[in-house]
Amino acid sequence: MVGEVIDERYELEELVDHGGMSSVYRGHDRLLERTVALKVLHAHFGDDAEYVERFRREARAVAQLSHPHIVTVIDRGSSDGHQFIVFEYVDGENLKQLVERTGPMPVDRVLELGIQIADALAFAHAHELVHRDVKPQNVLIDKTGDAKVTDFGIARSLDVERGVTQTGTVLGTSNYLSPEQAAGEPVTPATDVYSLGVVLYELLTGEVPFHGDNLVAVAMKHVTERPPNLLDQRADIPPRVAQAVERALEKDPAQRFPSMDAFANELRRCRDELGGSETERTLIRGTPVVAAPRPVRKARARRRRGHLPTLLALAGVLLIAVVIGAVLYGGTPIGRGGHHGGGLPAAVALKGVGDYDPQGDGSEHGYSAHLATDGNSNTYWNTERYNSRQFGGLKRGLGLVLDSARVTKLRQLTVHTVTPGFTAVVQAGNSPSGPFTNDSSPQTVGSTGTFSLRGASARYYVLWITELPPNDYVQVSEVTSR
Description:
Structural class: alpha+beta
Helix content: 25-40%
Strand order of the largest sheet: 1-2-3-4-6-5
CATH topology of the largest domain: Transferase(Phosphotransferase), domain 1
CATH class of the largest domain: Mainly Alpha
Shape: elongated
Radius of gyration: 29 Å
CATH superfamily of the largest domain: Transferase(Phosphotransferase) domain 1
Number of strands: 21
Number of domains: 4
Strand content: 15-25%
Distance between the termini: 77 Å
């Protein structure tokens, strides 16, 4: 009750929140003269060993987690039959209250909050704890606008084989429940990835993806239905942001991001893109942003069209001359294939088929490798973000695997990127999983870099990256070869 003093130290000043298991109060720590938050287990659960153990486990779990975006545990104990946990007091509102008050939030704000939440959960996962109840109500927003994850009340250690919650028990909140939770299956860090995906979906649209007449109906939709397309709900969301949320919401945990760290890194890349100028941002619904004033381009285009017939005629004469010269002097006519003499070698179509990460976790976005060879410079493959410009002792490097469809001898490989400054070498081999040997000299790539190859006979080629650019990750927009 408000006015009570817990453990002769903590005075309850105001009821802040009331849940099924416990109530949260703003309180005053008389010993240290500071404001705190107290979570007090409801009295009728005090005799239930399962609930008491779950409550104690929350305190033990969160006490391990010292992170700027996780609410800090200060104390725990029992007083007059009341189980309680003392937390730092966050003066603000929770994320659910914020989105209900403001509606859909700006994309850059959603990304910033998403990164903070993901970093906090990744830290918990590194300590072998899965939250299992990620939802806006469990994210507090302080006066500076930063997010702090709270309420690890049903968190579970990944190494626990038996405990107070078992397979077949559904815990969590149905609007944010992962398919595996709804089906009563074991949870993994991928469970929190899914729930955070639902949270970001709600922040972007103002609505959760699934609605139903009751909790069971909503839970089953998480198992069986795909969420409404984000771009149909809100057209100004950059496609890459939509793709990141959609991947987090995959029904199969194996199809989601391989870790919460990977999810956080992708959100950072989305934020970095959004932070550029309007001409540098990603496509919106497939329509590129104009990079230069239209009137100038149209005027120049009209001037060029006036000379077009003359230019075409001259081009025709030149083509005839080239063909005649080739026949008379033994050259190879255009279109016959092969490469003889000083002309450019024929183009060879490559297909990005995966990543090569022999010293890593195999999660360098191999699923998007094809975007580096799709002919669209606005789509790309990218690495994860690292903390150092050089891999150094972490790993020798990592690479993008390219398939030439048959054994060939490439003469050159050209890379286009918006993250210039990385060092790479082209390697060749006859299996997408290696081994590979160097087929070029190493070089630092600018916005465009062309590697001269030594002509090894191979089907597969790897753009092997050995040093990162200043922004600590590499994005490859397009790769072409001859």
